[in-house]
Amino acid sequence: MRIAAGALALLLLSSLPVRAENAMAGSWMIERADPAPWSNDTDYQPFRKAMPQYVGKHVLFEAKRIKGPALLACAKPNYAMKDYPADMLFQGQLGELEQRGGKKAEETATAMGFATRPVRTLETGCEGAFDFHMSDADHAAFALDNMIYWLKRDK
């Protein structure tokens, strides 16, 4: 009986690190896409034509792979949860916008819905180098082609 209880405890504990290392573990739906704050009609045009390939689709963050549409799928992720300052969100694009004379990265991040700092970010280590920035425990965003795609955790 003790062996069975110990085995059960070990099994339960062994499943915890996946969630601890990856706060985004589980299923998410891409619910919308918005032009990125740094986008414009000349140098940083938002590529809206890709939206149907992503919006309404699900992304599943599993321990050993990511299932999802096109560029988000990954056979062997190397997850790392990091804390990012506002100027490093979306691979530094908010910081670059500020350096080009745009709004301050802090103001832009807050206006986008990132209310707290630092911002919890999942680095996937996959070929596409997508980072998923969490605005809270159930919402996250990533950038693609000067668009911001917003995900909501499936319940």
Describe this structure in words.
The chain has 155 residues and is α+β, with helices and mostly antiparallel strands. It has one domain (2-153). Helices cover 28% and strands 29% of the residues. α3 (89-99) crosses α4 (105-112). It is globular and about 40 Å long.
Kindly state the mean pLDDT as a whole number? Answer: 89
State the strand order across the main sheet: 3-2-1-8-7-6-5-4
Number of helices: 4
Count of strand segments = 8
In short:
This protein has helices at residues 2-21, 51-54, 89-99, 105-112, and strands at residues 26-35, 58-61, 66-67, 80-84, 119-123, 131-136, 139-144, 147-153. It is an alpha+beta fold and 155 residues long.
Q: Topology of this structure?
A:
Elements: H1 2-21, E1 26-35, H2 51-54, E2 58-61, E3 66-67, E4 80-84, H3 89-99, H4 105-112, E5 119-123, E6 131-136, E7 139-144, E8 147-153
Antiparallel strand pairs: 1-2, 1-8, 2-3, 4-5, 5-6, 6-7, 7-8
Features:
155 residues; alpha+beta; 8-stranded antiparallel β-sheet; 28% helix; 29% strand; globular
